[in-house]
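Supplementary notes for students who missed Thursday's class. We covered one full example, reproduced here. Read the sequence, then the structure, then the short commentary at the end.
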Amino acid sequence: MQLTKHHGLGNDFLVLLDLEGTTPIDAGLAQAVCDRRRGVGADGLIRVSPGSGGTDVAMTLLNSDGGRAEMSGNGIRCLAHALARSQGVERATYDITTDAGPRRVEIELSDGGRTAWSTADMGVLRAAPARDPGLGAEASMGVDVGNPHLVARFRDE
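Structure (token representation):
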């Protein structure tokens, strides 16, 4: 099994290019390889497999605890980076099947493929239930773009 490691805005992911669809991943594998002391270390493990319904590829994302995530903006951009590098292209657009629905990523590589500029269509923004984050937050709301987020406004002190 060959994994590549990618970083996107503070998150890091291990990416498995499985374009033949022969190497499934599971929670135990994600926990082992993502472990920062005994494994490679990462926030999650991404498997890139054949697409469906007209998409180029499919994304399966398991978090470091082994739980399946619907979507990650940083993760899907890391997936696109791994795919573009493997194809030897400098610029590409990929339609990707995710558990949150199809998403499109545009990517442009530079510096021999070491760095990239990319944008990801995150889908429709939906309100979601929010929990009070505490810590002096003035307001909070839940936002879902395929995976839940918490938006909180804090007082300047």
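Commentary. The helical segments are 27-34, 73-87. Residues 58 and 97 are 4 Å apart (CA to CA). If anything here is unclear, bring it to office hours.
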